[in-house]
Design goal:
The chain is built from 19 helices and 25 strands. By secondary structure, it is an alpha+beta fold. The strands form six sheets. It has an eight-stranded mixed β-sheet, with helices on one face. The chain has a five-stranded mixed β-sheet with strand order 9-10-15-12-13, sandwiched between helices. A five-stranded antiparallel β-sheet has the order 18-19-20-21-25. A hairpin with a 5-residue loop joins strand 1 and strand 2. The longest helix is centred in the middle third of the chain and has 26 residues. The protein binds adenosine-5'-diphosphate and magnesium ion (MG).
Length: 580
């Protein structure tokens, strides 16, 4: 065995394997460099999702020609003046992004320091490819072309220009949220996709995540033990089918940390269905010595000195904000009351009627009810003998959420939303098997604005969606025209439905068979088409629901696997009252 030193060229390529995974990661490095150079305006141009070209132009400090040469060398950086790796405030500090990118592409670097002349250096897969004067305004322009053209092993892993574009858009969004004071533009294939003026963080986040956060968001601002958490999270009712819109920024650095996902889940526990995900943009400010940013070559992960404290701050801060808000929002939006599931297992367990547990269910629900709560239960007097329906006849509704029915052999309680959702799903399944799902044409087609990757996904699934009676058409780059909806849906929030479907398609990707995918789509549609918890039902409506449940397969479980009804047999009731 002979040990030898690797040639620099090879070292760069190896590093590129870690730093530059795809166009979006190269783009991220370049934009970070512009931010580190104190740019106030950054424009990004992409061709073919960044596979053909990524260009970043900034008005930052620029570089003199000799600095440019150095910048292209490995481990050359201007960002560690004190040589203190543990006190990094810049995005960059490893000095490997530029040489790495240059080793796997054709890179042209042009730069000009204010008051000096501009200079250009070209590198072709790590080899110098000429330099000379360049005309440009003060700042830096970097163009990366043909990424991985000569690295087939990498090239192979690139996805379609569409997916690469989606990843690039995400990179830009993250950095634009991290630095709301900087102006950004993004062009894709010569079309302007984003124009962001300098603004404050909340406005920038609303612009990039969802304008609905204005109404459906909760502001966060908590400080504990020198840690500060600010940002916005969505109300439990404003949620998504995938956890793709949860952003964490640590000292202004976008990071992808599993800690966030876990903390979010804990904070929303029993406020949101298990397969639904809130939206969040959280900004955590921690003392520099509390966090190590040098744990990942792409600098997207961090290590906290005390992860428990960070998690506690997030869970506690979010939970408190949500609790406070739930009282307000419930009072405000009574008619469109939130679908808030109690945790299914504990729910089922409580129904074995150990009393302390049952009391805790009541506790929980009380926190969701508006101040000045007026009981909504209505009762239907039991005048006639009970006909022998398995689920009985409706006697009333409790909390506009549960139907209480009397059966021959006991008392039945039905979760109206869970049950109805199941019925809609089974109806759609049956109709699909029969060939045609009844659809309802919209008098006025509805235009739904979504971001471009979401529109692409929906457009790609248009045929399958049409099979469910959902007829859509592309309507410009960032909008979808809806011509018809499944008749089972009734009046529905079409925007929310499309956003969920797009999320669903993104998440499922190519992983599932067509049939499974269709099932997911059907379930998403069904959820939107169902009677919400919180809707007051007439006795006739309640009875109709019960009768349909009796004849529908699998109606005992909702689409999320929870029970749709429970029965207390006469024997149970007797035990409960100590008669037996
Ligand atoms: P790092 O960012 O970790 O220092 P890079 O390889 O990304 O390493 O960049 C090397 C150096 O090139 C930076 O430290 C910086 O001095 C310089 N540089 C890169 N991009 C720019 C830019 N857009 N404007 C000014 N200087 C830049
Ligand atoms: Mg850098």
């Amino acid at each position: 065995m002979s040990i030898r030193r690797l040639p620099p060229e090879l070292i760069n390529r190896i590093a590129a394997g870690e730093v530059v995974e795809r166009p979006a990661s190269a783009l991220k490095e370049l934009v970070e460099n512009s931010l580190d150079a104190d740019a106030t305006h950054i424009s990004v141009r992409l061709s073919a999702g960044g596979i053909e070209q990524v260009e970043v132009v900034d008005d930052g400090c620029g570089m003199a020609p000799e600095e440019m040469r150095l910048a292209l060398e490995r481990h050359a950086t201007s960002k560690l003046p004190t040589d203190a790796i543990d006190r990094v405030t810049s995005f960059g500090f490893r000095g490997e992004a530029l040489p790495s990118i240059a080793s796997v592409s054709r890179l042209t670097l042009e730069s000009r320091v204010s008051g000096e002349d501009g200079w250009r250096i070209a590198i072709d897969h790590g080899e110098p490819a000429g330099e000379g004067p360049a005309a440009l305004p003060p700042g830096t322009r970097i163009r990366v072309e043909g990424l991985f053209d000569k690295v087939p092993a990498r090239r192979k892993f690139l996805r379609s220009p569409r997916s690469e574009y989606a990843a690039c858009l995400d990179s830009v969004k993250r950095l634009a949220m991290a630095r709301s004071d900087v102006a950004f533009t993004l062009d894709h294939d010569d079309r302007r996709v984003l124009t962001l003026q300098p603004s404050e963080a909340p406005a920038r986040v609303a612009e990039l995540l969802a304008h609905e956060l204005d109404r459906h968001g909760v502001g966060i601002d908590v400080t504990r033990d020198g840690l500060r958490l600010t940002g916005v999270i969505s109300l439990p009712t404003f949620n998504r089918g995938v956890a793709d819109q949860q952003y964490l920024f640590v000292n202004s650095r976008p990071v992808k940390d599993r800690l966030l996902a876990g903390a979010m889940r804990a904070a929303y526990r029993d406020l949101i269905a298990r397969d639904r995900h809130p939206i969040a943009a959280l900004f955590l400010d921690v003392p520099l010595d509390e966090v190590d940013v040098n744990v990942h070559p792409a600098k997207t992960e961090v290590r906290f000195r005390d992860p428990g404290a960070v998690r506690g701050l997030i869970v506690g801060g979010l939970r408190r904000a949500l609790d406070e808000e739930s009282q307000r929002s419930a009072a405000r939006e009574q008619s469109a009351a939130p679908v808030m599931w109690t945790n299914s297992e504990s729910y089922a367990r409580d129904f074995t009627l150990e009393r302390p547990a049952a009391a805790s269910v009541r506790e929980e629900q009380r926190s969701f009810t508006p101040i000045g709560f007026v009981p909504q239960g209505r009762a239907e007097p039991a005048v006639e003998a009970v006909p022998s329906y398995p689920l009985g006849v409706a006697r009333g509704q409790v909390n506009a959420t549960y139907i209480v029915a009397e059966a021959e052999d006991g008392l039945v309680i039905v979760d109206q939303h869970a049950a109805h959702e199941r019925l809609v799903l089974e109806r759609m399944r049956a109709a699909r098997e029969g060939g045609a799902v009844p659809r309802q044409a919209l008098l006025l087609p509805e235009v739904v604005e979504l971001d471009e990757p979401d529109c692409d996904r929906l457009e790609g699934a248009a045929d399958e969606l049409a099979g469910f009676g959902l007829e859509i058409e592309r309507f410009g780059p960032a909008a979808i025209l809806v011509r018809a909806v499944p008749a089972a849906l009734g009046k529905t929030d079409i925007q929310g439905l499309l956003a969920d479907l797009a999320g669903e398609i993104a998440e499922l990707g190519g992983a599932l068979s067509l049939r499974d995918k269709l099932d997911h789509v059907a379930a998403t549609i069904a959820c939107h088409g169902s009677v919400r918890a919180g809707r007051v039902l007439s006795v006739a409506e309640m009875n109709a629901l019960l009768r349909e449940m009796e004849v529908t397969p699998r109606s005992g479980q909702c689409n999320h696997g929870r029970p749709t009804w429970v029965k207390l047999a006469h024997g149970d009731l007797e035990r409960l009252f100590g008669r037996k």
